[in-house]
Amino acid sequence: MKAPLSLSVAGPSVRPHSPALAAAATLVVLQVGITLLRPWPLALAVDYALGGRPLTGHLEFLAGMGSAKLLVLAGAASVGLTIVDGLLELVIMQTAEGAAERIGAALRATMFERAMTRSLRWHDRMRSGELVSRLTTDVGRVLDGVVALTTSFLPDAVMLVGVLVLLLAFDPTLLLIGLAVVPVLAGLAVRQRARIRATQQAARAESGQLSGATTDLLRNVRAVQAFGRLDHATGEYGDRNRAVLEAELRAIRVDARWTPVADVLLAIGSALVLVVGGLSVLNGAMTVGGLLVVTAYLRDLYSPVRGLTRLSAVLAKAGASAIRVREVLECDEAVTDRVGAWIAPPLVEDVRFEKVGFRYEPDQPVLDDFNLRIAAGETVCLIGPSGIGKSTVLHLLLRLYEVNTGRVLIDGVNVRYCRQLTVRSRFAYVPQDPWLLDATVAENIAFGNPAATRADVLEAGRNAQVDEFIGRLPHGYDTTLGESGVRLSGGQRRRIAIARAVVSYAPMVLLDEPTASLDPRSAAAVVKAIQTATAHRTVLLVTHDRALSAIADRVVSLSLPDLQDELAKPLNIADLRQRRASGRG
Ligand SMILES: Nc1ncnc2c1ncn2[C@@H]1O[C@H](COP(=O)(O)OP(=O)(O)OP(=O)(O)O)[C@@H](O)[C@H]1O
Predict the structure, then answer these.
(1) Whose CA is closest to atom 5 on ligand 1?
(2) What GO MF annotations does this protein's record show (predicted)?
(3) CATH code for residues 350-581
């Protein structure tokens, strides 16, 4: 079966919960046994209590009972079976659904972890809304498939076999008549499953696009309002929304068309049995109770047939979602550590770019034969026109992307052979967009160093000039910043990002346009913060700000390749320290 195979994507998350699922499946089989017993009290009432048939054979123990007592017994048995059935249903629901929720949580956690460790190249392509849709809706549908497999497939199959055996023993002719419609039904179910799967796949793809667009538009609500482009936003959302609606309606039409077809076919089978069985009753070849039992069993036979065809639709939907879940789980696009990767050196000599070539897209080189050496303790300012690749240089140092050619070295060791986490721990990064979380000021600063104490955070805040504005926030360092730090000004956000770098104690600080678009007063505060924060550290600074570039020991221009050889030369550290001491650094 194709759909269950695709559900194997949930396998590792299912395994720890397979005992619970197995228990649920066993109880469901027990429930099938109860269902198979349910027609018999009616037969007892009709044939023996009302019809006066003699109680012989395995019913002889009831022979002394009068008709009234037999009727009460039949009623009580019917109620008793219903109660047991209900209790089983309760336990099955709790066990299976509970296990499904746990499996869902585990699957989401695995997917999230997977997504968080994929390369930025992958994230550049995958919209975050699309990813959210896969983590939530698609995981939910895969779980529906797992639950349906546990609670429907096995019992329906057991029920089918059980009823077939009983009917075969009871009346093989009527069984054959009743089964006449089943091959037609099965053929239609197979075709239907393929159609449902295709329409569901299309609907899920459209839904993912809608989630992507929604996240993008909501994140940019400020731009939409500031530019008065509500028409554009609602237009784009409306188009995507309509596309989802149309795809879902198509999927519903395909799904719904199936129900009446199956019901009519099954009704034809029942009618044939009723006519032929009724004639047998009239001929005296069969009792009324017997006919009632056969028709009840036939209903029980059709119920799993209908159940299995419905299951096929659920699995088709789950299969479409499983493909989308699998795309995340099985994506191996990541910056990975080699087996036996080293701990990155402590950065006591230098960092070097040697003949580095890099491109985000195959046909668009960003860096080509790029060389740069930054000695430990040095502050280098990287300048160059917009889009030349300055931020890219910082990304390559952090090993957020792998270089295509050449090498990035820390103390002479290629970062490619070092564990990513240890490489990143050598750098404190202040990105152009400060990347603040929806957490408190203190939590945002401590993000730079999980071991930071409250005192470390406050000291970093002091050094990064956060103290200058913290008094104006309602709860000081415990004020929640809102999504992306919306409750702060640009300069305030940058100073928190600098405090985050300060608290990290990494030997080298990477700063990307930290004073861009700030007014002179805020820029001066940020420059002061940087000077305090970067004392005694190696610094690579990207800026167009003259005041800020003045704190550098060297300025490197990315637009002048002929300078690069000169810049790659080692710097005299003693000279550097002397210049720093004399106040030039
Ligand atoms: N994630 C990405 N995917 C594809 N191309 C990218 C990506 N990030 C940057 N680029 C491209 O790479 C080039 C270098 O970008 P980068 O951000 O390094 O430039 P920059 O010199 O820092 O520019 P600016 O001064 O404007 O910040 C640009 O042409 C940019 O379009």
Answers:
(1) 360
(2) ABC-type transporter activity; ATP binding; ATP hydrolysis activity; ATPase-coupled lipid transmembrane transporter activity
(3) 3.40.50.300
The residue among 179, 244, 170, 181 whose CA lies nearest residue 207 is 244
CA–CA dist 7, 15 (Å, integer)? 13
Share of the chain above pLDDT 90, in %: 12
85-94, 351-360, 534-543, 557-566: range with highest mean pLDDT: 351-360
Which phi and psi angles does 171 have, rounded to 5°? -160, 90
CATH 1.20.1560.10 fits 2-329, yes or no: yes
pLDDT of residue 6: 57
Ligand 1 atom nearest the C-alpha of 432 is 27
Taking CA 308 as the corner, what is the angle to CA 304 and CA 310, rounded to the nearest 5 degrees?
A: 115
Q: What would the 3-class secondary structure string for 445-482 be?
A: HHCCCCCCCHHHHHHHHHHCCCHHHHCCCCCHHHCECC
Confidence (pLDDT) at 280:
84
Hey, what amino acid is at 60? E
The radius of gyration of the chain's CA atoms, rounded to the nearest angstrom, is 36
- What confidence tens digit (pLDDT) does each residue in 31-74 have? 878 887 887 888 788 887 787 777 777 777 777 777 788 888 88
Atom of ligand 1 nearest to the CA of 513: 27
Separation of 392 CA from ligand 1 center, angstroms?
Answer: 6
Token digits of residue 157: 């199959």
Pocket probe mutation, ligand 1, options 128, 353, 360, max atoms within 8 Å of Cβ: 360
pLDDT value for 583? 42
Q: Rounded to 5 degrees, what are φ and ψ at 372?
A: -160, 140
State how far the Cα of 164 lies from the Cα of 158, in Å rounded to an integer.
10
Residue spans of the domains in the chain: they are 2-329, 350-581
Residues with CB under 6 A from ligand 1: 124, 360-361, 366, 384, 386-392
Q: Is the dihedral of CA 446, 451, 453, 457 positive or negative?
A: negative
